[in-house]
Amino acid sequence: MSCELDGRKESCLCFLKQTSLRSGPLEGQINGKKKEAETLPSPPCSPSAVPPREGNTVVVTPVSASVSCFYLPQGAPVPRSTAVGQVIARIEATFANFKEQRATIHDMGKVSKACGCPLYWKAALFHGAGGETTGFISASSLVDTWNKLSLSCFDESSKFVYLLAKRGAAYLEQEDFTLLLQDIVDSHPGLTFLKDAPEFHSRYITTAIQRIFYTVNRSWTGRITASELRRSNFLQTLSLLEGEDDINQITDYFSYEHFYVIYCKFWELDTDHNLSIDRRDLARYNYHDSERATMPSVLFRGTSAQREGRMSYAEFVWFLISEEDKRSPTSIEYWFRCMDLDGDGVLSMYELEHFYEEQHDRLEAMGFEPLPFHDLLCQMLDLVKPQQPGKITLRDLKRCGMAHVFFDTFFSLEKYLEHEQKDPFAIHKEVDRNGQELSDWDRFAAEEYDVLVAEDSESEHPDER
């Protein structure tokens, strides 16, 4: 499709003119030379990761439209009332029924209810009262913990962080969630079948942790704060586990079916089954085998995989969710960081051309006639409509609502061809049983799970087939 040069010619020329000044540095990057100013995308959830930038400005998701008068990271203080005394009385009464008035992790369901907490806070309460060290907690240790918590934490988010975090820390790191998720694996009725497959416990837990940080840790620091918990649906989703025996109905974070899809996709690529893949393995995803393997090379930048030449299973979780759902805020930031080779917070013409080259070559190899880059550039500018001519920023991509089409054009050949066959602005919505709109990831996971189950059934009963 050729570009109409009447109304858009000036915008394209302006883009070409402004980005031409950066040709030298980027060409050096493409030829394999490193630049000192380069900001490499750190591995998902690593402490060294930084939020995406727009120019010299760090992009941070706003807390709310209206900012309160005071900064209250632990929630708004409330008067200490008789409610605390009532909770302590219930704790002491509950422990009176335990042998030697001690509670193990298996007793913590009753203790959690005595504290007025959701059922699956039991691991957090056990950790907060020192249970991991001794294997049990006493009434006095929990009462002491509850008194301290009541003096400094005034909402669910701050209490949850206080209980589960390391001593003295005001944030949660990945390993802090291990006890919580192991308790869910051990006690949730929807995961009882995993008791006979302990080797999969760690894989399920790793997947759930990565999904939690992918959604909740919007600052990309690898540390979840109480403020980030408040802005997420994690605690609400955690409380839903108590009333839902089928864990697959809780699609956010905990679904076993979603874990099954992710792990099977990784297993197909991990041919030596050492829980890590290299660039060539990743290049085979969706049958896109490539000698140059541009996409995997970019994803390996700035990660432990760059040093070791391999990508871990945890990093693959981030890649797969981002690849299959390019509409979510985290996914948009993920791909923007991959494309912003020089780390200046702006996607230049040379960066776009660099990523389009491989798509162009693939299209030619398949017998298609690809668009010349200048025509494609005009299409992308029309799609994104950047606020400043010649500068495509992260804010532009989030605002335009078409980031998935933009990134598919440069990274996913199959999806790019699908977009070419339909109106990219057409609205097609699917909803779940509760009337909630399905995300692209939810839709992908449901379809892939059905395919995987069908394949397993055929392999087990070849005669019936």
Automatic annotation (TrEMBL):
GO terms for molecular function: calcium ion binding; protein phosphatase regulator activity. Residues 25-53 are annotated as: Disordered. Residues 41-50 have a biased composition (Pro residues). Residues 327-362 form the EF-hand domain. It comes from the Eukaryota. InterPro entries: EF-hand-dom_pair, EF-hand_13, EF_Hand_1_Ca_BS, EF_hand_dom, P2R3A_B_D_EF-hand. Coiled coil: none annotated. SUPFAM superfamilies: EF-hand. GO terms for cellular component: protein phosphatase type 2A complex. Keywords: Calcium, Metal-binding. The keyword Metal-binding applies. The B regulatory subunit might modulate substrate selectivity and catalytic activity, and might also direct the localization of the catalytic enzyme to a particular subcellular compartment. This is EF-hand domain-containing protein.
